[in-house]
Amino acid sequence: MDFNCIAPTIVFQEVPNEISLCFSITGCKIGCKGCHSTELWNENYGMSLSKENYLHWLKKYKGLISCVVFFGGEWQANALIEKLLLAKNLGLKTCLYSGEKHIDINISQHLDFLKTGAWHAELGGLESPTTNQIFRDMKTGEKLNHLFIKDSINYNSLQGADNVAA
Ligand code: SF4
């Protein structure tokens, strides 16, 4: 059985150092309070991500992307595993963003990157030092949350540099 998704988009920040094609899968049952994407809760929303549709998207962006990222879909393991294997066969890396704490090994063995943890507004997302969420390199096991924390820019010093140049 296939799952539905909304039209995929190219994303640059969800997987550090990769250009990813992002598929948001509908039918999420986690129900995070403050979810920014409640349209994803309805499994009938969006279009069917059949094998044919999926390959169409991957071919369309061939040579432009290095990774495929799924927002959800772990609730239909077979459909997700099929898509991960197709991406791997085309030489693409794979990533899953899940609100769950743990992902079945049958899925995770096909992932290069995995984000786990539900959304809690008071803890913040991956860029927050207090977050409950974890972004991991699945090949090395390394936690990569630090790559999401943006360097703080000291605008005063930039202004000072401007003045010197003038
Ligand atoms: S896992 Fe994501 S889509 Fe699902 S409820 Fe939580 S924030 Fe919303």
Automatic annotation (TrEMBL):
Keywords: Iron, Iron-sulfur, Metal-binding, S-adenosyl-L-methionine. It comes from the Bacteria. InterPro entries: Aldolase_TIM, Anaer_RNR_activator, rSAM, rSAM_sf. GO terms for molecular function: catalytic activity; iron-sulfur cluster binding; metal ion binding. The keyword Transcription does not apply. Its cofactor is [4Fe-4S] cluster. NCBIfam families: RNR_activ_nrdG3. This is Anaerobic ribonucleoside-triphosphate reductase activating protein. It comes from Litorilituus lipolyticus.
